[in-house]
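Lecture notes, part 5. Sequence design as translation. It can be helpful to think of inverse folding as translation between two languages: the language of shapes and the language of residues. The source text, in structure tokens, appears below.
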């Protein structure tokens, strides 16, 4: 405790803010969670993006307390003076924050987002897990969904930035945000057709405009979905394919949409959609087999934050929420040297 108090005092007793490092995974959905929590915490922070080495594919328990999981060049980023607070997200970043905890002789407060992926997790001061992970422990704090960057201020800026694109669209605006195949879900020709037919049935009663966007994992199936939608008479008024270049209207979509249809494979996209003002529908294909993701979907349904996409439109007053600031307050409570 004495060591921590000293760290909070600048040279010759002058007070200074804590040094904060964000260990950022290059995967956008994971890395943005750590940055979002750092923003909500309110302290200045330094982003330490990690470049993985071939050893990163090994389980964390085999890598131990080393930096073997990152490139030699990247290892140079992790030298003293050590930070007072570390925020990391994902299995790969968890290994680096563990290393910092040990090298700082316990002086760094480690906040890990997402399960570290191995049983030796008591070294972390705080592990933030979503309720649907169904894990509990003394250093585990559970919330609904994942930390994200969607705030009223950001949405206001997005409205200003994208007004020329969205103000001309007929209301209501229904935006389709599609992820892609992963180990829990295939998103191929069959799913594209199933998705498009459900949107067409919904749009038959809803009318208005369709906006369509893809994500990093969507790949070529994005064009297939676009063609299917047009074949069903639901030609998007605006569409954006990830990686196609130009400005990504994603934030404008969240700010302007009356309804958001999100594929159920991405916890991050669903969390961002539920922090936005529109009503959220979740598309879950017939072959979806992730119990963890389904628990999250059911939690959102119970809260009134989302509805399942069944091709039938029903209006409701959605529960919009962002747990990130509650997470930040919990971090401050748990920092033994004060908030």
């Amino acid at each position: 405790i004495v060591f921590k108090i000293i760290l909070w005092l600048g040279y010759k007793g002058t007070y200074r803010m804590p040094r904060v490092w964000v260990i950022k995974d290059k995967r956008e959905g994971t890395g943005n969670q750590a940055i979002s929590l750092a923003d909500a915490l309110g302290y200045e922070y330094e982003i330490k993006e990690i470049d993985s080495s071939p050893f990163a594919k090994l389980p964390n328990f085999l890598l131990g307390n080393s930096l073997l999981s990152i490139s030699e060049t990247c290892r140079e980023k992790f030298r003293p003076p050590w930070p007072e607070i570390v925020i990391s997200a994902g299995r790969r970043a968890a290994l680096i924050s563990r290393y910092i905890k040990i090298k700082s002789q316990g002086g760094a407060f480690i906040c890990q987002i997402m399960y570290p992926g191995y049983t030796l997790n008591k070294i972390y001061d705080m592990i933030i897990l979503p309720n649907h992970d169904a894990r509990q422990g003394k250093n585990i704090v559970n919330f609904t969904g994942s930390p994200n960057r969607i705030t009223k201020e950001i949405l206001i800026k997005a409205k200003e930035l994208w007004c020329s694109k969205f103000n001309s669209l007929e209301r209501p605006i229904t935006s389709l945000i599609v992820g892609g195949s992963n180990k829990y879900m295939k998103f191929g020709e069959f799913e594209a057709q199933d998705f498009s037919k459900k949107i067409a049935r919904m749009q038959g009663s809803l009318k208005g405009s369709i906006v369509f966007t893809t994500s990093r994992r969507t790949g070529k199936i994005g064009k297939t979905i676009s063609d299917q939608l047009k074949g069903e008479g639901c030609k998007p008024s605006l569409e954006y394919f990830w990686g196609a270049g130009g400005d990504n209207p994603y934030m404008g979509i969240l700010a302007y949409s009356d309804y958001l249809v999100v594929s159920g494979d991405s916890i991050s996209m669903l969390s961002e959609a539920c922090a936005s003002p529109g009503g959220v529908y979740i598309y879950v294909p017939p072959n979806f087999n992730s119990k963890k993701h389904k628990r999250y979907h059911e939690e959102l349904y119970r809260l009134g934050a989302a509805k399942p996409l069944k091709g039938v439109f029903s209006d409701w007053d959605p529960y919009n929420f962002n747990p990130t600031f509650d997470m930040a307050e919990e971090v401050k409570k748990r920092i033994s040297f004060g908030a």
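The translated text above is only one of many valid answers, since several sequences can fold into similar shapes. The longest strand covers residues 173-178.
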